[in-house]
């Protein structure tokens, strides 16, 4: 079945003056204009295309890959604002429309905005919304504690960063677990650290708990290699000094050096850590 707003694998059916017509398994056809037709092809060759509506609201295919697809979230640049709304650059000839009613703040040309792409049921057009929270739902969670998840940074708060989890849930990364700069639209791998009352998700970047020991131990070994086998840190070092040098909490640091010491990979002395 041909899917609007998504990447489709279709077959080349026939050639015309305007391009080639592609067909899906249900015999639905769509035009691939000449500018996107491969230099060499055969009838019934398969080709990956993105399907959307052109400026005349006709179904059309393109081999260009958009920055966002139906149901996804992405950081896009506003290229123009009209009396009807904003137009966003999503990598295609026809830009993605974001009506004023779907803007958290009024968009301005040149600005970058995190948006969700959805299908407007009235117009049957792909449109964008910067009101991303309304496309997230935590009533029925599809993730559990310690599950690895995909994270998109949404917006900061006093407690940390609000994030989009697996494109369906909302979550929060607390400030005390953030060791690097985060910007709107940044994408990370993370772990669900805790599920609080009301299905609120506490998320951390990377791994958590016992899964966090080995990666942090590796980080310390790499730092030792880069510093001739010595790090001027101990279990009594200031947490901020540990965070600045190793981008981890003091608790994670102590667990990691304990692991390395037990494995006889390091020696712990009053003035620092030495690689064995």
Q: Could you explain the architecture of this structure?
A:
The structure is a single chain. This protein has 276 residues and is mainly β. The protein has four domains: 7-62, Beta Barrel (OB fold (Dihydrolipoamide Acetyltransferase, E2P)); 73-133, OB fold (Dihydrolipoamide Acetyltransferase, E2P), CATH 2.40.50; 148-206, OB fold (Dihydrolipoamide Acetyltransferase, E2P); 210-275, Orthogonal Bundle (Arc Repressor Mutant, subunit A), CATH 1.10.10.10. The protein has three helices and 18 strands. The strands form four sheets. A five-stranded antiparallel beta sheet has the order 3-2-1-4-5, with no helix packed on it. Strands 8-7-6-9-10 form a five-stranded antiparallel beta sheet, with no helix packed on it. Strand 4 (46-53) and strand 5 (59-62) form a beta hairpin. Helix 1 crosses helix 3. The longest helix is centred in the C-terminal third of the chain and has 14 residues, at 213-226. The chain is elongated and about 80 Å long. The model has no long low-confidence stretch (mean pLDDT 92).
Helical content, roughly? 10-25%
Largest sheet: 5 strands, antiparallel
User: What is the name of the CATH superfamily of the largest domain?
Assistant: Winged helix-like DNA-binding domain superfamily/Winged helix DNA-binding domain
Multimeric state: single chain
Distance between the termini: 60 Å
As for the number of domains, it is 4
Structural class based on helices, strands and sheet pairing: mainly beta
Taken as a percent bin, the fraction of beta residues is 35-45%
Strand order of the largest sheet: 3-2-1-4-5
Low-confidence stretches: none
What spatial form do the alpha-carbon principal axes imply? elongated
List how many beta strands DSSP finds.
18
**CATH class identity of the largest domain:** Mainly Alpha
- Specify the number of helices: 3
Order of H and E elements: EEEEEEEEEEEEEEEHEHHEE
CATH architecture of the largest domain: Orthogonal Bundle
CATH topology-level name of the largest domain: Arc Repressor Mutant, subunit A
| Overall pLDDT metric | 92
Cα radius of gyration in angstroms: 25 Å
